[in-house]
Amino acid sequence: PGMGGRARAAGGMTYTRAALARGLAGTRGSTLIVNLPGGAGGVADGLAVLEDLVEHGVQLLRGEPTDH
């Protein structure tokens, strides 16, 4: 399920069609790539849900110290 599943699950609480959204995440080099729904509201909601994961993922990709 990963990041896409987390965003879809959170969106499904308020938007019944969230299950139709694609949920992909990956890396290319030291870049974290996450696709979010096309609507501005879906993007804002998705980023809010994934904020703590994105920050940690970027730290890992950059080889920075993390809190674990």
How does this structure look, described?
With 68 residues, this protein is mainly alpha-helical. The chain contains two helices and two strands, in the order H-E-E-H. A two-stranded antiparallel sheet has the order 1-2. The longest helix has 23 residues, at 40-62.
In brief:
By secondary structure, the chain is mainly α. It is built from 2 helices and 2 strands, in the order αββα.
Layout of SSEs?
Blueprint: H1 2-12, E1 25-28, E2 31-34, H2 40-62
Antiparallel strand pairs: 1-2
Poorly predicted segments: none
Largest sheet: 2 strands, antiparallel
Number of helices: 2
User: Beta fraction of the residues?
Assistant: 5-15%
Helix content percent band: 40-55%
Structural class: mainly alpha
Tell me the distance between the termini: 22 Å
The shape, in one word, is elongated
Average pLDDT, rounded to a whole number, is: 83
| Helix and strand sequence | HEEH
Tally the beta strands: 2
Strand order of the largest sheet: 1-2
